[in-house]
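Chain A, query sequence.
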Amino acid sequence: MSKAFAGTSFPPTSTGFMTKLVAMMVLLSFFLSLFASHIAGELSEHNFHFDSPLPDGTLCSLVVQPFGYPCSEHTIQTNDGFLLGLQRVSSPAANLRKQLGPPVLLLHGLFMAGDAWFLNPPEESLGFILADHGFDVWVGNVRGTHWSHGHKSLSVKDKDFWDWSWQELALCDLREMISFISSTMMSKVSVVGHSQGTIISLAALTQSDIAEMVEAAALLSPISFLGHISSQFVLRMVSMHLDEMILAMGIHQLNFRSKWGVNLMDSVCAGHLNCSDLLTSITGKNCCFNDSLVDYYLGFEPHPSSVKNVHHLFQMIRTDTFAQYDYGIIKNLLLYGKTKPPEFNLGDIPKSLPLWMAYGGNDALADLTDVQDLLKKLQSTPELVYLENYGHLDFIVSVNAKNDLYDNMISFLNSRGKSSTLK
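Chain A, predicted structure.
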């Protein structure tokens, strides 16, 4: 069937059963592979059952406190009614607890949540490492993820609950997270993001009211432009307009722990598709991924997101722009006053705001050309770390990440000095 896909173009509004099934199978195999293993076939090798529910408990109780780190749970509400989970983590060392350092907010990637920063052992996971260096670590979870808490009035079954893209994550979720932390601590906040976390960080920092609350930003696999993405699998999906097809089916939530997702997972890599080395074909070759932790990773990943969010990302690939969501000419005129959505002007990020970025030579999602295009748009010159052998996921799960890049990032964050008091 994989050969058939290579030369097939499905009509974007087809409603035939087989077209729906094929589209969902392809989409599912793509997103699951981001969090599975170097080859999707390892799922059966590890005897992991994808229909296993997320374990009972909180992020703190499941992935932080078992290692002896103090962790507290917080809930904040966005201006459009979403209830977001925040966790606060500090070092188990008593002297560090008494002298808590500057606040740092961690922002996860697509189909992930705050647990992504704690999936490896403490000596390899950035969330623990920052706490060990005395930082006041805050862990963000965007709307729709397991560690956030729904909406004040909408149910997850409501279409409107999933009517958002990364635009809202930047302008609503991240704004509220930073505001809450800065007002609680009476200081500016440093932001650390990976993948989607960098998209929403860069978009948010173009807004002066958000940027003035930020001390510095460190971005892993930075993304603002996607026009030169090199993942052939993703490009094929984009060319087939699978995002538009899924929306046309009336599907608004992408939750691969749902019943249809579990059922399709059983057949995706069981003779229907060639799933060999699918992760590499999507993210680029990850040099330092610990295969022995696959089952543990899949105990928490993937988290839900919205189809609209993926559609917005695919719009970025098609247009090579860092712009707001494109609703079409008529609705764009109503919402934006112009036929095309306005772009986020990266030149509006203050020149005085310190930036640090790490990117990889094997990253098929944050392509080198797109990173260079991002750098050209900025007023400032960020500190850069380039790792030739790193793929997209290495930046958060590499067993060598501490020596390769986290130590450098911590030096950057420490160079900002103690957190600045808000004026």
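The chain has a mean pLDDT of 84. The longest strand covers residues 71-77.
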